[in-house]
Amino acid sequence: MTTTEPLTDYEAVIGLEVHVELSTATKMFCGCAIDFGGEPNSRTCAVCLGQPGSLPVPNARAVEFAIRLGLALDCDIIERSQFHRKNYFYPDMPKNYQISQYDVAICERGHLDLDIDGQIRRIGIHRVHMEEDTGKTIHVGTSGRIHGAEYSLVDYNRAGIPLLEVVSEPDVRSAAEAQAYLSELRGIVLALGISDAKLEEGSMRCDANVSVRPRGRDVFGERVEVKNLNSVRSLGRAVTYEIERQTDLARAGEPVIRETRHWNEDAGTTSTLRAKEAVFDYRYFPDPDLVPIEPDAAWVSQLAEQLPPLPAATRTRLRTDHGIDAERAGTLVDAGLVGVLDDAVAAGAPPGDAAKWLTNEVLGWSNEHGVEPVALPLTGEHLAGLLALIADGTLSTKLARQALDGVLAGEGSPTDVARARGLEQMSDTAELERMVDDAIAAQPDAAERIRAGNHKAIGALVGAVMKASRGQANPQVVNDLIRDRLIAR
Fold first, then answer.
1. Which of 165, 269, 354, 422 is the most exposed place for a label (fewest CB within 10 A)?
2. Do 236 and 94 share a domain, yes or no?
3. How crowded is the C-beta side of 225, counted as CA atoms within 13 Å?
4. Are the CB atoms for 22 and 194 separated by under 8 Å?
């Protein structure tokens, strides 16, 4: 869908629901492991399968992670919160209910500040609550969805994994703000170390509630929930599409139907998934098997004191301490490469050069090979060593990129890779002089132009020497040798 008329008569009202799968060792209410993958239905027990007589026990580590995220979002930590049963009858929940928090969440009334083009936008956080994940349903057929599937399979390995749901206030006004919110929240989660926050693997998932209203009005329009948003890019595209779709309906005088819609990444459109459930449809009631959660105030204060630097503070530090521009600082934070930068600078690397290599070369390699930056075998000492090899003339920039390729592929340190691949620049002056003489003899016309004062022709001879040396000659040394031979001093 495209809209040529500016959307100035209507504005979007967007709220985001983000589920964060926690990196605990075991599930929310039992001792089953939560490692990603595994044989279907191999990581289950009587508790997470809801078998008669089994009793859930809350995961203390999950409670700690919830409080840490709440503190990072400036939430109130509630003195007494309660688990409820959310009743529904989908096959991905073996108990026919999900244990979640309903009217009293563990964290409430926080906010997340976004830097949008130099302006701070504060997005309210309505609540952060704990719950358990559902199983995974696999629809077998050409569509990959329940409509048109030949049959469906259910894997309960994921059922019971601890989740935090972060619910924003409806304060987001554009697709760009929605993307910035999800990126910033993901950065906070990674900084806290409570989840790997991998959108592509589902350990962080986002749903967008989108509505439009006449600009300047306080009343909310009918909202639509959009699901299947597995990247920051997908969120932006889906929200943009839904804003345009609802605006077109409003201008035509047609109602927006309250429903849950599915985002189709390939088509770039949303489509009806199901009617939107109301709260009473889930028949919430307090779980009789679980006591209320009452975190000790002293423990909460201790957790607050132990919070690590959060992304906004880290970006500011990179700008003020290292002179790194705002865009590059944000890229380093989002990619989780700040630790590598800090270690490289501590090992003697110039901050600006280290930041450029990380954001340009390292992230480029990461994207090309489909490897998360934080999973690369690159240390700050590696990066500092690579830059030192460039500075002392051992490697040219081109050869350094080849050495970096070997480091990122796990072949060892930059020095080890350079030696193993034969990348060191030639230091034998006699050999370089021979190559220069050969180049001059092979290109007498270029040599004559240089003697006549056309110094741009030096490039042709330098190129010939670089080709003969397979890129290992030092270009500056070659340039100086040519000048010594052809230009009167």
1. 422
2. yes
3. 15
4. yes
DSSP assignment of 381-397: HHHHHHHHHHHTTSS-H
Q: Which domain holds residue 146?
A: 10-302
Distance CA 391, CA 395 (A): 8
On whether residue 353 sits in a domain, the answer given is: yes
Q: In angstroms, rounded to a whole number, what is the distance separating the alpha carbons of residues 469 and 25?
A: 54
Cβ-based neighbours of 21, under 8 Å, separated by 6 or more = 133, 161, 162, 163, 195, 202, 203, 204, 205
Q: For 111-130, b where at least 16 C-beta lie within 10 A, e where not — what string?
A: ebebeeeeeebebbbbbbbb
Give the tokens for residue 220: 């909310």
**Do 87 and 230 belong to one domain?**
yes
Mind listing the pLDDT tens digit for each residue in 321-340? 999 999 999 999 988 899 99
Query: pLDDT, tens digit, for every residue of 400-433?
Result: 999 999 999 999 999 999 888 877 666 657 777 7
Q: Provide the phi-psi class of 141: left if phi over 0, else alpha when psi is between -120 and 50, else beta.
A: left
Specify the pLDDT at position 279: 63
Q: How many helices and strands (H and E) does the chain possess?
A: 16, 14
Q: How many Cβ atoms from other residues are within 10 Å of residue 366's Cβ?
A: 20
Say whether both 348 and 469 belong to one domain.
Answer: no
pLDDT of res. 2: 45
3-class DSSP state of 7: coil
Segments in the chain below pLDDT 70: 1-8, 37, 142-147, 276-280, 424-428, 476, 488-489
- Using an 8 Å Cβ cutoff, are 162 and 195 in contact? no
Same domain, 187 and 320: no
Location of structure tokens 């790194």? 324
Kindly list the distances between the CA atom of residue 362 and the CA atoms of 318, 320, 370, 443, in Å, as whole numbers in the listed order.
Answer: 18, 23, 12, 39
Chosen domain end from 302, 317, 352: 302
Q: What angle do CA 118, 199, 375 make, to 5 degrees?
A: 90
Q: If DSSP codes are grouped into helix, strand and coil, which group holds residue 367?
A: helix
pTM for this model (two decimals): 0.80
CA–CA gap between residue 179 and residue 169 (Å, rounded): 15
Task: Please tell me the distance from the alpha carbon of residue 389 to that of residue 428, in angstroms, as a whole number.
Answer: 17
Q: How far apart are CA 351 and CA 320, in angstroms?
A: 12
Residues 264, 362, single domain; the answer is no
- Do 233 and 379 lie in one domain? The reply is no
Same domain, 258 and 404: no
Structure confidence by residue, pLDDT tens digits, 453-463 = 778 878 888 78
Dihedral pair phi/psi, residue 261, rounded to 5°:
-120, 150
